[in-house]
Structure formats: structure tokens, C-alpha cells
Amino acid sequence: MGDLGGAGLRFGLLGPLRAWYGEQELELGRPQQRAVLAVLLQAPGRTVAVPVLVEGVWGGASPADPRKAVQLAVSRLRSAFRPYTGDDPDRMPLVRVGDGYAFRAPHAEVDATAWEELLAEAGRLRDADAPPQEVRKVLRSAQRLWVGEPLAGLPGPHAEAVRARLAEQRISAKETELELDAELGDRTDLTAEAEALALEHPGRPRLTTVLMRALYQAGRKAEALAVYEDARPSLPPDDRGPAELQLRILREDASLLPATAPTNPADPATDTWQAPDQLPAGLPDFTGRTEEVEALLDRLAAGGGRAVVVSALDGMGGVGKTTLAVHVARQVRERFPDGQLFADLRGADHTPPDPGTVLVGFLLALGVDPAEIPPDTGERSALYRSALAGRRVLVVLDNAATPGHVEPLLPGSAGCAVLITSRHRLAGLPGAHQLRLDTLPPEQALELLTRIVGAERVAAEADAAEEVVRACGLLPLAVRIAASRLVADPSLTLAALAEGLCHEHRLAELSDGERTVEATFALSYRRLDPELARAFRLMSLPDAPDLPLHCAAALLGRTEDEADELLETLVDLNLLHSPRFGRYGFHDLVRAYARGRLAAEDDAAERTAATDRLLDFCLATARNADLAARKAEPAELSLLGATVASPGRAIADGAEAVRWMRDQAEVHAAAIALGCDDPALSLDRAAELADRMGAVLPERTQTGVIADLAERIARQAAARGEHGPLALAHYLRGSMLWHINRYAESEEEIRRAVALSDRQESGGQGAAGQESGGQGAAGRKSDGQGAAGQERTERVLAKALITLGSNARTHGRYAEAAEHAGRAAAIFHRLGAQRAEGSALGEFAFSAAQTGRVDEARDAAERSARLMSASGPVSAAIGRYYLARVLRLCGDPEAALDHAVGAREEFTALQVTVFAAAAGDLAARIHAEAGRWLLAVDAAEAVLPLARRTSAALEAGLLRTLGTALDGLGRPRQARACLADSLELYERLGLADESAQVRGLLSR
Fold first, then answer.
1. Considering only Cβ atoms within 10 Å of each terminal Cβ, which end of the chain, N or C, has fewer?
2. 3-state helix, strand, coil in the chain (%, to 5)
3. Is the pLDDT of residue 335 over 90?
């Protein structure tokens, strides 16, 4: 009974009439008895005359002796209440009063009464202009009281009238709730519910407008307009709401867009917004910059009708741009209660991160499900702006390279503000307020030195202190490093430090600010002991923004405790910084200096050994993550047989595995790049690490990154003649490209992998040798010989064949797809890889069924489901989905529907988004093929938001099914809008057969 509870009498009318005393349900008897009780419950405490009871229960078909019938019903009801009354007649709630009866139990709880009280509360809140979230919360509490049709199964005019009144109240309250949903914009599944209700209750203007607005918010403008045209004949002529909304949609009224970020579609009632807090820690000894601070604070306070962009902090490296930006940002945090985002754009690097990669981090920090993040940077930027709509968030973009580097990262909400730092003035950035940051005035530079070193020590050598800050070029970074040197060595005098700095200047013939900083680095570096100096140099080797302690320890070849002590000492000396606990990175100028020292002092063997240790640790940990996330078969963890010496970091479960692989993606990419650039290392571990990235983190946010890494590995493997890594890299790149619908490129890569693997399997070189340019020593080392090498070659071949078959299936070449998948299944069967065999059999079964081999296909699908059911919940759900789609093609649609719906529920619970969308698409198609148009629309709309962010091909298929179902429901204009969108997607993907089918539907 929803929110009702307690130990007294309770009654439920919002469903079949039921009664409880405490936790004991009372037996109320026949329908006429229940109907009498229902009349009395609707008039609590008041007397209801017998004729009124008779008319309410029996209507025009009253019994021969109506009064006796009522007396008998009341008597039996009194017997039902005995567990409540016991032997005390005063507790009896049904009492005789004159010529009628009354229900008198003042503390009894009735769900219909609670329902109406909650509706009244929601009305009062709306009248008082309460926040829409509060009103909606009350309405949702009220809706939870319902368990079915009111007074279900009870006869008589009274029950019928109560049903009609409560049903109208319910649909009206639901309309209000959906309007609030649309206003807040925090439900990605709003369209599905609005569509179902509009079809179930045609002619209701409020439902029509909610559906139109939900479709418009979902980017389906043509469908939104078509809904109005289809519904117009059934709408009341005096209600102008839908017509006015049509005009606003045509004008693209911005106020129709969501006011808040979308929530997780798996739980539409839950707000998934997270208020990020990404600002680095401020410096307690921040000094000076009073005018600049005030200017920035004034600018942030003056934000008006659009996002404030402050590109005020341009200046040379080391001048203190980041420190100032963070200092100001932390002062204004309270003005931005929805959170603060921070990103180092590494604009001074040779290859700064793509804005799309930064957007992934921002979206994850805002609570967006990784599966909901699209692969395209433009789409990510649009989702980011939608997530920030109506929010007050401060965004700090540090070290930008160009205006194009930051434009995708700018919010559009008037409540947001942006602080940008750059070494160059970002001319042309719209709305930017420019502020040049110069070196510190001499007195502020001296004050900074004093605050770090101590007033007494500076006062004792005042002249030398001034020489130090002048020798530091008045650059804050240089002053901080010099001061840290003094703090670390109390015996070092300021005069000696000043002399050392001047000496470094003379040696380098320095003339500009950044070279002045380099002189400061040199002086500090020369005072490091050998172990610290080695750590300083080696930490600069990977091209990653920072390293976690675990990876840093592996890179240095030290225990974590030893590495922690070394790195914290370098942090104290301002030669490293720690952006968050347990992670260590460089200021880019310091990194450049460290790399210079690495090249000058460490030979190639030392750099190779460090890279080898880092790759070894990363691969070992990635394998641990794969075991925790997927319970992968041992052979799956090492497709090339690469050996690792490190045990890696222990990973507790799948959630930790995904977090680790996501957080270390840039570190893994840097380690792979080092492996590719070092000819002394074979590429097997780099290739396997990239493969584990794709296996453990199958998110579309990573597919492009992994595809690029695979391309880099392939280039190097071809040049070195390393056939195993070459084949794996081609397979991996092809697989990643397939998942982002780049089918032609995917097929080209996969065919290369198959050709290479076929040649290796047969023991020849042929095409593989031609592509790789011959087999060198490194290639002989990684290819592996004998039975183990043969097995690894076969595994890569079989995985490539599955993807090749999937590509053929996507383009309707089912006979070819079945041949590839069948060959892969046979290989996996020979190798004893049951889960992989089950997956290949599922692919084979679907394509075989498409060619008419239905008996063979059904047998294969059932075997696939059996094999995969023993390999964990995700694999079991995939096997069930494979079986469902084959059963549909084999003429058993109801069994197929049962498995499709079950698989969709399992995928949703497991948060496997793309398969949840695929299973929902299958269920929608089965309903449509059976002419169950309403159910088809419900099933399609429920998963369409998932498909839109996971697979363009799935989205196109769902739109086709939705269009077919809407046409069957007599909604031709909305149906054509869906089909037109489907056709556009199919043509963009180059899927000719599907495009032709949709054109046929449109031409009817």
C-alpha cells in the first residue's frame, strides 16, 4: 500500500479492495459485500441510507429484498472485522445509525484518502511557486500508492463512478508530473512514457504537448511537429496549448530545452547529478597579484546573460597563471554551488590532448554514464552543454593552446563561468576578457621568497635575497624552486644561492624568462643526491600528465614505499607536483628540463629498462583487471604469450577494474608509445596492453583512442617484422572501428589480420612478410613457435573472423558471415575456449538462419546459450539474446520475445547499455511483426535513448520499427518522420540494403 503502514486498520481502494489489521489481511468476502464496504469507506463517519447503498451496489438490478441483502452484507463484513474488534463491540467500525449504516474508525488509513491529500499538497506547493523538484516528489509519492485499477472487480454504479473519478485524477496528476519532468529535463526516457500515455489516452492536449516537448528535447524535432499534425483532429478545438507549442518548436524556442542534466535512464526517478570538486589545492603562501585578483573577481561577479569566458591569464611559462587561476577560483566557489571543473589542456606539449578526451573526463565527473557518452567530439560537447544547462558551474581550463582547443569545452549556460590560462593571447575567442600576466614586481617577488624561507633568514641577508629574486627573473616558479632549495638545506646561505644562480646564468648565457627558470632548475638539480636525480629524470620519460604511485614505482624499479619517499621529496622541492593523492606530475617547463637531463645522462639501455618495467607492470595489472571484470579465460589474457615479471596491482572486483583502466588510460597510452618508439623492445606487451584496454573498458569514449594506438603499433610492427603484434594490432583496430560504425575501414583492417594469421598458421610468410618488410630479430622473438605459438595465432585468427563475419552481417552478406563465424567457432572448439565458442556460435546461428538453414541455426543458438550461461552473467545474457534473435527467424516469435525481454532486463541490471538497446530493439520488432503496435512503440521508445548514444545502426533500426508501429496506430506523419530519420542514418552508415527497405516503407 505504498507509504501507508502501522498497526491499525488499513484499507486499499487503489486496486482491488483489501483490508489489513496490522500485517494480517482480512477476508472481506464476496464482491457485493466489498462493494457495500467501498460505499461506506468513501463516506467515513457519515451515515449512508440503505436505499443509497442499494443503488450504489446493485443499481437498477436490485435484489428481491434489498434491505435484507444489505443487512446480510454488513453482518458478514462485521464477522470479517473480528480479528480487529475481538470481543469488544465498541471497536466495531460498521455501525447501524437510524435507517442506514456508517463506517466509524477515525484512525483507519485509506489509501484513496492519502492519495487525495497528497494531490492537495502538490497543488499548494505549485500555488506557492515551490521548486518543481519538490512538487514532483510529492506527486511521485502519491503515484506509488496505486497498485492497479481502483476497486477492481467490484460491481455497481458507485464503484464505477469511483473508478472513473480516481482514474481521471490519476491521469491528470501524471500529466502534471510529466510536465515537471519536461521542465526539469532530467529524464532521458520521458519520451517513452509520454508516447505510451498519449496513445492510450488520445485527445488529451496536455499529454500531446508533453510528448511534443519531450521529442523536441531529444533532438527529434520533425517527430514533435508530426505528433501535433496526427493528434490535431482529436484535440478539443478550444485548447490552444498544442498549437502554441508547435509555433515555439518551429521558432526553436530555447526555453523548451532541458533545465538540468539528464539522469540515468535505468532509474529515471533518481537525479544522477554530481557536483564535481576538481580544483587543485590552493597555495597557502600565495603572494601579490592584488589588482589581477580583483579584476578577475569583478569579471566573475558581473556574469550576465551568457557564460563568462575569462581568457585573462596569458603569459610566459612559470609566471604563475595556474596559481592565480586556482587562487581566484577557490575564492568564488560558493558562487558556483553545482561544482567546479578543472583540466590541464597541456597546450605546450607537442601533442596536447584532444578536447574530446577532456570532455569525457568532464562528463564522467558530472555523473553521466560512460555508456551514454557519444564518440564524436561535437556530440560530446552538445551533451556537456545540456548537462550544464541551468547549472552554476565554474570551469577552469589551464594551459590552452588555441581558441579551437577550448571552444568545445565552453558551457552555454548563463550561470556558468570559465577561467582560461594560456601562454599565448587567444585572439578571436568570443566574449573573452583578456589579461596579460607579467613577472612579479620586485617587492612582491621578495615577499614570496620571504613567506617561504622565513622573515628572519631573509632579513639577515637582505641584499643577497634581492639578488636571488632578480636572478630568478622575478618569475614565481623560479622563486619557489629557489626558496624550496633554501628550506631543504638550512646550511645554504642566500649569498651562496645567489652566486650559484648567477653562475648558471653565465654558463647558459640566459636572456629570457623561461631560460631563467631553467637556470633555477639546474641549480636545484645539481644539489640532488644521485637517487633523487635519477627519479627526477626517469619520471619525465612517459608522455602522461601524471603517474600513480604504483606505476611510478615500477618505472623507477623501486618499492612503493621507496618511490613515495623519493617523489614526495621532489614535491617538497617544487620539482614535481601532486595534483591529487598518490599521483605525481611535472610543470611542463620542469618536464622539458628533466627530459633534457635524461637524454644527456642516461643511456639507451637505462631508458629501455625503465620502459620495460612500466609496460610489464601495466600489462600485469591490466590482466588482473580483466580477470576481475570479465573472469576471462587464461588464454584470453595473453593472445601473444607475452611474459610479465611483475604480479601487478591486485584488483578486487569489476568496478575497481573499470576505474583503474579508465584512470590509467593516458598512462597506458604513454607506455604503449614508449614501447613503439624503442626498437630494443618487442611489441608483444604493447599490443597486448592495448588489447586489454579494449577488453576491460569497452566504452565508446575509448574506442577511438585504442584504434589510434593499434594503428601506431601496426606501423612499428610492420617495420620491424613482428607478425604477432602486427596481426593483433590490425584485429584490434578493426574491432574498435566496427564499434563506431566505420565499417569499410574496419573490414580492411580485419582482412589484414586474417591474412597474416592464415599465413602464420600455415607456416609461410607470403603477404605477412610483404606487409612487414621481412622478419627481423624482434619479430622472431615475439611470434612464438611450436604448439603454444600456433594456438595464439589461431586465437587472433578466430577473433578476427568473428569481427569479419559481423561486418558481413551488417551489410547483409549472411552466407559469408556464417562461413566466417562457423570457422571461428570450430577454432575455439578445438582450443577448448567455451565462452568464445559460444559467442561465435551465436553469430553463426543468426546468419545461418537468415540464409534459411533454420534447423542448423536453432541447434547452434541453443548450444551457444548453454556454453555462455556458464561464463558469468554478462555472457549468459548475451547467449540469451543470441538465442532470441535466432528463434524469431526460426518462426517461434513468442519464445524469442520471452528471451529478448529477459535479456534486456539482465543487460539493464548489468549496465551493458549497447546490448540492452539491441535486446529492446528485438522485442520491439517482434511486437511489430505481430501487429501489437502499442507494445512495439513502448519497447522501441524505452531503449531508443540508449541506442542514440551507443550505436547509430541500432538507432536507425529502432526508428524504422517505431515508424512501422506508429503507422499501424494511425499516426502517419509521426511515422514518416521516424522513417525519414532512419533512412538518413542508414545512408550515412553506407548500409544499402537497409536504406532500400526504408525507402520502400516511405514510398507506400
1. C
2. 65, 5, 30
3. no
User: What's the pLDDT score for residue 264?
Assistant: 41
Q: Give me the residue label for grid cell 572486483.
A: 653
53-62, 817-826, 934-943: which has the minimum mean pLDDT?
53-62
Q: Would you say 39 and 48 are in contact if contact means Cβ atoms under 8 Å apart?
A: yes
Cα–Cα distances (Å) from 755 to 113, 744, 792, 844, in that order, read 73, 17, 15, 21
As given in the structure block, the three cell numbers for residue 71 are 443487512
The Cα angle at residue 649 between residues 646 and 652, in degrees rounded to 5: 140
Phi-psi region of 27 (alpha: psi -120 to 50; beta: other; left: phi over 0): beta
- Beta strand pairing status for 24-26 and 18-21? antiparallel
* Distance, CA of 625 to CA of 654 (rounded, Å): 7
Residue-averaged pLDDT of the chain: 85
- The pTM (predicted TM-score) of the whole model is 0.66
Cβ-proximal residues to 763 (8 Å cutoff; 6+ apart), any chain: none
458-462 long-range Cβ contacts below 8 angstroms, 24+ apart: 458/494, 461/493, 461/494, 461/495
Residue 774 CB neighbour total at 10 angstroms? 11
Count of Cβ atoms closer than 10 Å to residue 413 Cβ: 19
pLDDT digits (tens, 9 = 90+) for 638-664: 888 899 999 999 998 888 888 899 889
Q: pLDDT tens, 129-162? A: 888 889 999 999 999 999 889 998 899 999 999 9
User: By three-state DSSP, how is residue 714 classified?
Assistant: helix
Neighbours of 470 (CB within 10 A): 16
Q: Are 28 and 78 in contact (CB under 8 A)?
A: no
Q: How many residues does the chain have?
A: 1004
Which are the contacts of 902, defined by CB distance < 8 A and separation ≥ 6? 880
Per-residue DSSP letter, 304: -
State the pLDDT confidence band at 307, using cuts at 50, 70 and 90. low
pLDDT tens digits for 669-703? Answer: 999 999 999 999 999 999 999 999 988 876 667 88
- Write the single-letter amino acid at 107: H
Nearest residue to 753 via CA among 703, 798, 810: 798
Q: What confidence category does residue 561 fall into, taking pLDDT thresholds of 50, 70 and 90? A: very high
Strand ranges (E), 276-385: 308-314, 340-344
* 566 alpha carbon, distance to own chain's centre: 37
Nearest-angstrom CA–CA distance, 921 and 911: 16
CA–CA dist 802, 757 (Å, integer) = 14
Estimate the crossing angle of helix 50-58 against helix 31-41, to 10 degrees.
130
Residue 318, CA distances (Å) to 247, 418, 437, 478, 481 in order: 55, 21, 11, 7, 11
pLDDT tens, position by position, 759-817: 776 655 444 444 444 333 333 344 444 565 677 788 889 989 999 998 899 888 999 99
Sheet architecture: strand order including 24-26: 24-26, 18-21, 9-12, 109-110
Which residue is listed with cell 554530481? 274
CA 533 – CA 526 distance, rounded (Å): 8
Residue matched to cell numbers 629570457: 512
Is residue 83 predicted with pLDDT exceeding 90?
no
Rounded CA-CA distance 348/245 in Å is 49
The one-letter amino acid at 710: A
Best mean pLDDT range from 228-232, 652-656, 883-887: 883-887
Nearest-5° Cα angle at 640, 753 to 824: 50
Sort 337 into a burial class: Cβ within 10 Å, 0-12 / 13-18 / 19+.
Answer: exposed
Q: What are phi and psi of 342, to 5 degrees?
A: -140, 135
- The amino acid occupying position 892 is D
More confident residue, 849 or 499: 849
Select from 303, 579, 587 the least CA-distant residue to 419: 303
Integer-rounded Cα Rg, in Å, for the chain is 35
Copy the grid coordinates of residue 106. Answer: 477515525
What's the pLDDT tens digit per position in 963-972? Answer: 999 999 999 9
